[in-house]
Amino acid sequence: MRKVLFLVYPVWLYVVFSLPALLLSSILYTKGVDLITGNSFGAMGMVLLHMRRKRKKMTELPAMPWKRIFLVTGVMMIPAASLTAFLTGKAFPAMHLTPWLINCTWSFFWISCCEELLFREFLITRMKKAGHPGWLILILPALLFSLCHRPESVSLLMQRVVMGIGLGYLYYRFGDISLCISAHWVYNIILFTFQYFLPRVTTVYSASRAALNLLLCMLSLLGIVVAYSINKSKFARYT
User: Fold this and answer.
1) Does residue 136 lie in a domain region?
2) Is 34 among the domain residues?
3) Is the pLDDT of residue 199 over 70?
4) Into how many domains does the chain fold?
5) Which pLDDT tens digit goes with each residue over 55-71?
6) Cα 55 from Cα 62, distance rounded (Å)
């Protein structure tokens, strides 16, 4: 029983924190605060509780690499920010930037930490220790990760399953939670920026320009993930 019971832990945390996070989001929404910002406080609560209790007891894990997380995220953001400024920069001045900045710096940081610590680091570490096969270690956490997002359609479910498998492979292969958190954080920033500025970018430029920017930013992120994975030992000297 204990060989599979730990799989419930991330879902249990989501259930426990979902109601207070929902209430906080509703209150903040009446004040004009984005719902994502409200949800981020639930994610922060899960991270702090998990690190204080479960992660602290997992002695096989190293200390949280906070410095590396911020450094790798900054490196990943350089080409994405440069491409966005070059291709769609004229759309920014006319937009209300405060909600965008809060979500990109605060909300997505806690959300990415929460999901990577629970669905990648915790589940994959425990599943490997329990002797589960590699294919199940990649698929099951990715499925739980997608279901906890309460997907509105099959396509969204599969999109997050694929993302979860990709991030799961990175952790399974390299055991570097900083890479997973940084990649997840920047992925959310790129996607949210595309959605947030799409109406304005379409007006100033075109929908195809916005799509091109999204594609190039995602490719730059993928390129850095691959380069970091290949040269992890060299990069680690500076982190």
Assistant:
1) yes
2) no
3) yes
4) 1
5) 999 999 999 999 999 99
6) 10
Phi/psi region, residue 175 (left: phi>0; alpha: psi -120 to 50; beta: rest), is left
In a domain, 139, yes or no: yes
118: nearest Cα among 23, 36, 15: 15
Q: What is the tens place of the pLDDT at every residue in 99-118?
A: 899 999 999 999 999 999 99
The whole-angstrom separation of Cα 69 and Cα 78 is 15
Look at residue 23 and tell me if it is in a domain: no
As a whole number of angstroms, the distance between CA 72 and CA 144 comes to: 26
Compute the average pLDDT of residues 69-79: 96
- Please determine, for residue 239, whether its predicted confidence score (pLDDT) is greater than 50: no
Each residue of 21-64: pLDDT tens digit?
A: 777 777 776 766 777 888 888 899 999 999 999 999 999 999 99
What's the domain range around 184? 65-236
Amino acid (1-letter code) at residue 75: V
